[in-house]
Design a protein that fits this description.
The structure is a single chain. By secondary structure, the chain is an alpha/beta fold. Helix content is 42%, strand content 22%. It is built from nine helices and twelve strands. It has a five-stranded parallel β-sheet with strand order 2-1-3-4-5, with helices on both faces. Strands 6-7-8-9 form a four-stranded antiparallel β-sheet, covered by helices on one side. A three-stranded antiparallel β-sheet has the order 10-12-11. Strand 1 (3-7), helix 1 and strand 2 (27-31) form a beta-alpha-beta unit. Helix 4 runs parallel beside helix 9 and helix 7 packs across helix 9 (217-231). The longest helix has 17 residues, at 105-121. The chain is elongated. It starts with a strand and ends with a strand.
Length: 254
């Protein structure tokens, strides 16, 4: 039974969503504000968070950013806001999906299943059991050269600088694990596998289309900005991910 944490202060919407999700076999609990919602995460361990943008005590995007500091649980923001810039802001804050109120319950349930399936198919490293994580670490230490099925691609210079782990869908930067969203990982995979190749925004859109339900040209720019924050010493003067003016972006193998 999948567990859903709903952070929603509107009782009518909360009751309706709770009823439908329970009928679909979900175990759902609802919190009415951000403080109690965040507090419920460690104990409840949800498979999905449904997060209202406007809450009485906290902004939904602030909650999203706070959750992303410690967890990669799928987050779907539900809001009356429906402008593209607002959807992009949600994406930049770490949301995985966005639905505008009012919405179809059938679509909500379908998207909930899709997000959970995706998260379970591609778990992040910090979601693996501790014993499994230790086993993976020991196996990595024993191998002189990691198998291609485990390490997708690596940019090396005396020591690993940036690598992508296929099994955990995690990115390692200078030996430190860095969390990425699904789309960030896919974009980084393209870059590392094809250093020097110039990707247009449309190329990158095709890479992530079908995984980001509200992906746009502007969303690609947000992904690039987020990746630069995660891998660049100075994101404002990027050395790895370069802008090719009038075309798109390329990854420079230094």
């Amino acid at each position: 039974m999948y567990k859903v944490l709903m952070i929603e202060d509107d009782a009518m919407i909360g009751d309706m969503v709770t009823m439908y999700l329970k009928e679909e076999g979900f175990h759902i609990i609802r919190e009415e504000n951000g403080t109690s919602g965040i507090a419920a995460i460690p104990q409840f361990q949800p498979d999905l968070i449904l997060l209202d943008w406007m809450l009485p005590d906290m902004d939904g995007l602030a909650i999203c950013r706070q959750v992303r500091e410690t967890s990669s649980v799928p987050i779907m923001i539900v809001s009356m806001k429906n402008k593209i810039v607002e959807r992009v802001n949600a994406l930049g804050a770490g949301a995985d999906d966005f639905m505008c109120k009012p919405f179809s319950m059938h679509e909500l349930i379908a998207r909930a299943h899709a997000l959970i399936r995706r998260a379970q198919r591609y778990p992040s490293l910090n979601q693996l059991p501790a014993a499994q994580s230790r086993q993976d670490e020991e196996e990595d230490e024993e191998e002189v050269k990691p198998a291609k099925s485990t390490i997708l691609a690596t940019v090396m210079d005396k020591q690993d600088k940036i690598s992508l782990n296929a099994n955990t869908r995690s990115m390692i930067v200078y030996g430190e694990i860095v969390e990425t969203t699904y789309s960030e990982f896919e974009i980084m995979r393209c870059f590392i596998n094809n250093p020097g190749r110039v990707y247009s925004r449309e190329d990158l859109l095709q890479t992530v289309r079908g995984f980001d339900s509200f992906v746009t040209d502007r969303a690609i720019d947000v992904h690039i900005a987020n990746l630069r924050k995660k891998i660049e010493d100075n994101p404002k003067e990027p050395k790895w991910i370069r802008t090719v003016w009038g075309v798109g972006y390329k990854f420079v193998h230094m």
